Amino acid sequence: MKDPKLTMERSPLGSRFFSSSNTLVVAVSTGVDSMVLLDLLQNLPKLRRPRLIVAHVNHHLRTQSTAEEAFLRAYCRQRNLPLEVAQWAVAEHPAKGIEAAARRFRYSFFATVMDKYQAQAVATAHHQDDLAETVLMKLIRGGRIEQLGALRWQRPFASGALIRPLLALNKQDLRRYAKDHQLTWFEDETNRDLTPFRNRVRHRYLPSLSVENPRLVTALASDAEQINDLLGLANERLGELDATLRTERGFSLAAFRRLSESTQRSYLRYYLTKRGVATIKEEQLHQLVTGLGDQTRPPQSFQLPNQWCLVKGYREAFLKKAGQTAQEGESEGEFVVELGQWYRLRAGGAFSVTRQPDQGSVTTVWLTNNQFPLTCRPVQAGDRLLLKGGTHQRVRRVLIDQKVPRDLRANQRVIVDALGQVVWLVGVKVAWFDRRPGALPVALCQREQ
């Protein structure tokens, strides 16, 4: 058993984020994990204790949500801790995919709080059991090996980082600490519902497998850390390789063909993922490698998910949207926005997102690198637009206020960033993003056809 206090103080995150000169947003649900995290952060040595901002989302998914919010308000008031609370109204809950939608809402709110307080990071209470559950879920479902190392100590987020200070601690360590220090927390009754896959992994599969190896949670967490290290090294090398293969539009076929077949597959995964094509299957990847390597066949296009296609020319291969000409395109459904490319709208006109403003510019927004890639999709229930001052307005309300005819609202599209935040209600209104460190200007353009 580990001492959570000592483990926190020795965390690899400490040298960068645990300082009295820093501001840290702490995501608190009132569950035992987040209450332990909040208590540990408050008890760091004075010189290593950052300014803490508590962030809480009332999802209105359970009857006890109101009591949890009231408890946390009182807790923070007694300890003079700034508290920010967001309400995810029942009317904004989607009929399907509620867990994913809740996560998008939550992390969009955390990013907003970070910007408001100029915080360096958001801290979440993910721990070793969460990491082990994630690894086992990915193994059961299958997929890409990169997903096995999904939970890391830190990753870029909004204008700073998302950090997980409890990853070296397991659930038993946290519960023991909470009881020893007489902390108050709330149990989420839905955690015992075996309908969600994660709950079955947590309460059924992991305990059964732990009979074979009592240290399974630690072993899976160690495996994930090793995978992260290897993936980090691989991405460094692939980034260097990408720089040598890169052409004006894509990559050199001659240089690509000189690589070993395994390196070709690795590079192609890297190239496609970096450009927003992340759902390709291994079978199709093998077909692409074979097709690109065949010098006897003429130029051709390979269809990819989300209306992308990989074009094989005589000297280079490059990505473009299926059915697009060089200057304008026509797209339906959801797709990744290519900077500088024009897209036709079903309701009429066309739009483009570019770093080079032109005569059709609507306005300029300031976006950070981690907000890319941008995605264009139809308006969804619950979409909200960030306003100046940090408040939000529902997109549906914007359309009504702007007197957009009801028959046109069905075809209305939004541009959203990688965090799920609405950047532009195309042709109607632009979100407000403060000019943050590292942000770059992006022009939103529109023209009539």
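(the above was protein one; protein two follows)
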Amino acid sequence: MTDVRVAAAGVLLAIERGDETLAAALDRVRPDVAPVDRGLLQELATGTLRWRNELDAVIATAARRSVKSIDPDVLAVLRLGAYQLRHLTRVPTHAVVDGAVRSIKTLRRASAASFVNAVLRAIVRRGPAIALPKRPATADDVDGWTRYLTTTLSHPAWLVRRWIDRYGPEAAETWCVFNNTSPPVTVRATAGHSIDELRMALEAAGVAYRPARYVSDALELPAGTLGSLPADLVAMVRPQDEGAQLVARMAAARPGERILDLCAAPGGKTLVLADDLRCGDPGAGSRLIAADYRAGRVALLCETLSRSHRHLPVVRLDARGPLPFSDTFDAVLVDAPCSGLGTIRREPDLKWSRTAEDLPVLAEGQLRMLHAAAGTVVPGGRIVYATCSSEPEEDAEVVNRFLARDRRFSLLAPDDGRVPAMMLTERGELFTRPDRDGLEVYYAAVLVRL
């Protein structure tokens, strides 16, 4: 078995090199770590990425040198140690320092052991005396707010400047604090079980829960609960962000309709659509097709559907078109690949891997998918265009460009009460916000064909 701190350092290094995402790197190393330490592996890697800028400022002060001058493997070990010292205070400081020294030796950098020891002991010794940018006293100190949110709350400067400009510094601060917390787990019942049956099973097992805030057929469990559920309960639940469920609800799927989920993997929204269509009920007369393109994504989609006991047709399609359907579907969900900047609470590596320059490139692909989907919808049918991006280049601006080119479509504001009105823009688009709703960012627009 690999030591958990060495494994976590390997995860950070793979992400730093651009080789893997956080999720992929964790999946790769998790089997090599003792089962009892797998939760700690997740905590170390995820927490260190969340607080990376803050940790780098602390390390630079303690080391009296820029982190850019520190070798990547040494810096990874120092970041993990600094994270434990500042954010996992249940671990004794001597154990943190000793573990970091052992880790750097295991990584065949024994010559750096004394440096790692000295830096971490300086962090222990100086503690709160290490100064970080403070929260500005006034809202008009934009530069001060940028320094505070970038360093102390550990977010990229380019992104926090955008949030400050659009929502103001205090909302941006709430957003950053939200992103640095461990999320609760929202779950739905798998096919064959009702939400009431799931509720009773959780109560019988002594598992704490509360109703989801905005979706009536989901429950919220405390952060970290999922990994400790007994096997019979695991088989009854399927985790899914509440905001993602609201996106699926924007489709307003009704029994008897034909719907295409065009970028369906991993499959959570497909399952919500299946519930709303009453798929599996022969009397409903519904038809739902799930599609994705890359082989790995299609396999993940099939696995999700199988695990949830949903037997639906799955096809491999490139959503950028052309598509093998014409005037076929009552609704098409285009949950387009995007920057993911709205979900960095769960995927903190995206804070550091995404740049503003990525957004126009992603938007071009998203626009192509919308135009491809347009040919598959019957007159009177609808496209639901969705992302989990916080940035307008991937959201409303893509929709505006599509509507300007295809005059057959117009925006439709939902009026069936499935989505809270406070989450809808003036035009009727869904846009969830951490500072207002306590949810990750999800965007969705309904485009009806005239």
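Reviewer note on protein two: The chain has 19 helices and twelve strands.
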